[in-house]
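ARCHIVE CARD
Drawer: 12
Card no.: 0347
Subject: one protein chain, sequence and derived structure
Cross-reference: see card 0346
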Amino acid sequence: MDREAAEAFVALARSGHYGDAASALLVSQPALTRRIQRLESALGVRLFDRGRHGARLSVAGRELAPLIDSWVDADDRLLRQAGLLEHGVSGTLRLGFGMSSVDIAPQAVARYRHRFPGVAVTLDDMSSTQQLDLVESGQLDAGFVRTAAAAGQPQLRRRQVGRDRLALARAVGARNAAATDLLTDRPVIALEPERGPGLYRQITEWLRAHGLTITVGQRAHDLLTVLALVAADAGIAVVPASSKRTAPRGVRITHLPSPAADWTISLVWRADSGSVTLREFLAAQAEPG
């Protein structure tokens, strides 16, 4: 439908006078008349009965008025929403995060939502490998992953946002001893390898570097369960040091030695992403504070 013609119809229907309607639209009366005629021609019906006292809706005009009003309102909403999307203040943002970014990612989202409350943000917990697959396929806009996992992927851009390292988790009442002694003497509670493949590889490499062989007494599907079992003194565990922030009471976490225990965390996204919400999210993370 012709937007100008529809607006002319609404204005004339409300005022009932060509002069008033033309003034409201800031056009001349002949221009208003031409717009009404265009709409009548397009619809194939007469919309107004014209007389000495102005213009009144015809029978067809009265029937069509609610539909034309609704069309103008819908077009207004469409234009407003398009403008919001263009400036990144509406739409969706899909993010992933992992164990080591359990505090970094929510803080980043909160900082972004403070500026853009109209954007719907999803934040899903998954491994770095899963995140990278979904970012590459376009199902995630960005992810917080182990930097090493994103190496050698030129289609992705990345920005380092944090660090983490391996740590030993033990019950507060457990005996004091060197981490290497505890790992060989006590059963180890381990996360399922597929739940955190990057963590599993790093733990394996650290153990190999220190010549250690461990006995896995129990496996769990999530880190909170691992830590809960440690708190109950069912064993010890090697976990990200960042899990100290979410560990239950009764768990003591100490860093494991050597640079092999360290890793960095990066925010990754597709280099060719055209998402305006992602662009504004990245800008929000670059701002101080």
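Annotation on reverse: The longest helix spans residues 59-86. The two ends are 49 Å apart (CA to CA).
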